[in-house]
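sorry for the late reply, my laptop died twice this morning and i had to redo everyting from scratch. anyway the thing you sent over, i finally got around to it. pasting the sequence first so we're on the same page, its 246 residues, then the predicted structure underneath. double check i copied it right bc i was rushing
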Amino acid sequence: MRRPLAALALALLAGHAGAQAPLTKEQGDAILQELKSIRQLLERQQQPPQRAQGIGPAPAASDRVKVALGESYAIGAANAPVTMVAFVDYECPFCKRFDVQTYPQLKKQYIDTGRLRYVIRDLPLEFHKRAMKAAEASYCAAEQGKFWEMRDKLIANSERLNAELLPGYAKELGIAEERFRGCLDSGKYVPRLQKSLDDARALGITGTPTFVIGKSGGDTLEGVKVVGAQPYATFDSHIKGLLDGK
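ok and here's the structure:
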């Protein structure tokens, strides 16, 4: 797994280098912390891995993968010709960069015009200690019809995701706070999140954001894997190619 993670670090840096807007000090500090965490994870993986009972090693990463859509939340026309699956982590600064700088353009150009369906799969990374609870919060909000509103709130507050703050975000969105707290405290969505983590690992997806873009068709998407907060032009090129039948 060391090579995919090292490649991820390079891809993330490339994504930032290709962005038009300069980094703020806050963003720069977040990126340095992210790369430090990746380095620590790489160093831990230098030790001989212990094979878990009944679980084989993750396959090598490839350019094309098949990903199950399952119960994932999606936005866009159900019959859109192209689907884009995003593996995300709410504490990841690179995910926030994509959501702030690139996603609005994709939504305007392709999602709102019925040509792209955008699907969320969660990948809370182990060194982001608040990401798992934040993902749970999005599902608890979804019980009250506020998944996308909570998602936007979590992205806007990606550096303030302490568990004790989450009910306050829910209250700001008009979500019944007591019901939300009960859901969050129950941990009822942890198995669902663990399934998403396992699915990502099986595909060789080890970092966020990672995307799979392909032609729509059923509950499974076969497409090309795009790693990192790449500029809009990268996604635009892939989507146009699929729409043109390439």
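The first strand starts at residue 64 and ends at 68.
thats about all i looked at so far, will dig more tmrw
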